[in-house]
Amino acid sequence: MRFAINHITAPNLSLEDFFSAARRLGLTEVEIRNDIPDVVNTMDPADVKAAAEKAGVEIVSINALYPFNVWSGDLPAKALALADYAAASGAKALVMCPLNDGTKVSFDDLVAALTAMKPILQERGLTGLVEPLGFPISSLRTKAEALSAIDAAGGGDVYRLVHDTFHHHLAGETEFFPSRTGLVHISGVVDPAVAVDDMLDAHRVLVDGADRLENVAQIKALIAAGFDGVFSFEPFAEEVHALDDPETAVRDSITYVSAQL
Questions:
Q1: Signal peptide: which range, if any (predicted)?
Q2: Cα 75 to Cα 194: distance, rounded to the nearest angstrom
Q3: H-helix or E-strand spanning residue 189
């Protein structure tokens, strides 16, 4: 099993310190972001690439192009700029998230966006990692719908799914697509009081024995079905971000998850 770490796990660490922490954890694969923390808009991509090479880590993705399924306004320009940055920084893929504000986006518009984004990714040797969001207000909740759109856009060689354990649980999805999954995001929810439909990013912590999302069961199912890619920690909760020693917390979560398999 290959673990990775998303920079949102320890957003107070500089990029160099984040890469160093990953290596001390025995990890060689990382994800960087354009939000929390905003590496993309604060660092030159050549510097990011040099820092990754110096640390001996591979940038598996940049999070995220949003809202990728609304191909209008400034989105095409944002997509080009982020793809250029990914290529220049040495990142292998772009995570692509759908509109998540309660506005519906048609299937045809979803297909059109994937079709428009396809050559941008192809020309730069990038993979598009499509991440359905399971929130009730999301315009693309399920991996099944995402795959239908990818196939309609003829994008099977360019696009892969992100299986996010949090969003899989929220969407009530039961089907796994290991052969078409490029990345797995893992995080847990331990608050016993919050209803599933009310779960938000703020509830997402590192995975431990109190997890309500069945992370271990999801991970086992993916591995049993043949997924051999990366499981990347992606907790959004402020209490994780504020930890004095996030490295130890991640190590404990790795130890817990590994012991359950």
A1: none
A2: 34
A3: none
Quick: pLDDT tens for 163-197: 999 999 999 999 999 999 999 999 999 999 999 99
Closest CA to 55 of 12, 19, 91, 31: 19
Q: Please name every residue paired with 2 in a beta bridge, in sequence order, or none if there are none.
A: 230
pTM of the model: 0.97
Mean pLDDT of the region 34-60:
97
Q: Is 4 helix (H, G, I), strand (E, B) or coil?
A: strand
pLDDT (tens digit, 9 = 90+) per residue, 91-105? 999 999 999 999 999
